Structures
1.
Amino acid sequence: MMDPTKKELLLEVNDLCMHYSVQGGFFDKSKGLVKAVDGVSFKLYKGSAFGLVGESGCGKTTTGRLIMKVMKPTSGSITFYDNKLGPIELVPISNKKMRPLRKKIQMVFQDPYSSLDPRMTIQQIVGEPLRAGGRGELHEYKNKIADILQKSGLSPDYMDRYPHAFSGGQRQRIGIARALVTQPQLVIADEPVSALDVSVQAQILNLLKELQQVFDLTYLFIAHDLSVIRYMCDTLAVMYVGRIVEIGRSEDIFHHPAHPYTEGLLSIIPRTNTRTKPGKMLKGAIADASNLPSGCYFHPRCPHAQDICKNEYPPLRDLGNEHQTACHFDLKLKGI
Ligand SMILES: Nc1ncnc2c1ncn2[C@@H]1O[C@H](COP(=O)(O)OP(=O)(O)OP(=O)(O)O)[C@@H](O)[C@H]1O
Ligand SMILES: [Mg+2]
């Protein structure tokens, strides 16, 4: 865990938006707007693990991909605080300038089956980020590849084999080795265990924790499962339809959730739901991002909704201790 007295910024996301223009359907030529990410702001501190949580479609992956510069946001800024170069604004920089930074920001993907090319050997897969943009030959990197495979819990003897020879858990170890081989500063892990058997999920989470210490990594950890986030992250943000509705230290949020949506998410964690009253369970489905409700997007599902919730979107409000929530009637203040 990081020392909160020595917080050093690594990445700052400010008012990030990704709006997609979409067509209604084959016969419906009207244009709609999907606000996949809509005004998201957060800070990542060196050595910390920051969790992004929310139901399917709330914009978690889009946020991660924007930081990876897979696509350009509609608006907003992403600042990377490089230890040598100082603050760098990632959105406007060219691919050429981004190239050296790519090695510093890596991603671990959800599906270890589709994210590894079946025609490449493990050595080629793990070595690829080292060569990206460079001219080096793979054999020059053999020691580095062997070392990171070992640290990821795989024998380097297998590096000439192909992905099909490995189990799901082992494949995810290969994906982790590939992300860490360039010695990145920031690792974005997008649902890294949700495609794995429950029995191997804990092993992979423990490996990620261990490697965080070994390499002094900062994680942006994406998951829909709050228990995974609780285990991995010191701070977290809860997203609902493209927006952050609650942000703060994990323990604060787990003990005193301020937003009814967070409370609903907590109620579906198997170990805690025995204590949750039925009225606080999450009902209904996530709002359609292309046809948003008026006011607070959560109001149609919210057990505490009042008239103001139907009319006004609540701004993020400070609750102290770096805890913020976007609710007109946050639970902490109202004692509901
Ligand atoms: N290329 C695209 N064009 C239009 N809409 C898109 C596009 N990519 C994503 N979306 C929409 O943006 C929203 C956010 O998607 P995103 O994949 O970021 O969600 P997520 O939180 O990662 O969900 P999941 O838990 O299912 O992975 C969804 O409504 C999705 O349908
Ligand atoms: Mg996703």
2.
Amino acid sequence: MRNITKIISACLLSLSVSQIAYAAGETPFPADWKSWTSVTTTLTTIGALPGCDADVSSFPPIYQETVETYCAVRPQGPGAVAVLVKPDAMASYTKRDGKLVEGSNMILHLKELQLLFVTGLNNGAPAYAVFKEDGTDATGADGILSANTCRVCHTGYGAFCVNGQCGTLK
Ligand code: HEC
């Protein structure tokens, strides 16, 4: 596996710089994200991802783990959030049937950090990426902004999340 990664990395190095910048994200930048549908969910009702000293013991375990993962990003936590859904994916998002459209479908917008956490479907499987608002790929190769961190939680809480979708319309 490591070798394959090395070979892929070597191939990517021979591509243009702009292509290398998009290498880590698994789903494309949704250039029209500002026109996506803003939805109300458990997290948007809370309003923000808080800092590490917040008492989140009354929330479901997945929310506690989300806060634990991201609380230290800034001293007061990541801050205000919005959830945006691609209009074509709204019917499926509402039903939570996991039948989202191929490509990018949902965004967790960390407004104060100006970051877009993006999920999508790639050949039917959940795919993850992090972008700056201008489309710069900020997905990490490892660590808290890596696609694997997203996957461990979004796929790991299989009873809570459906094909990568964790939130529910409120
Ligand atoms: C420890 C758990 C956890 C991790 C890690 C995590 N998320 Fe989430 N994510 C959640 C939860 C819980 C929600 C639902 C929030 C709500 O109520 O709207 C969510 C919501 C989202 C949404 C809105 C659509 C949905 O599924 O409800 C997107 C998009 C998203 N996350 C992307 C990402 C990406 C990309 C990463 C990795 C950089 C990531 N998440 C890391 C737990 C996690």
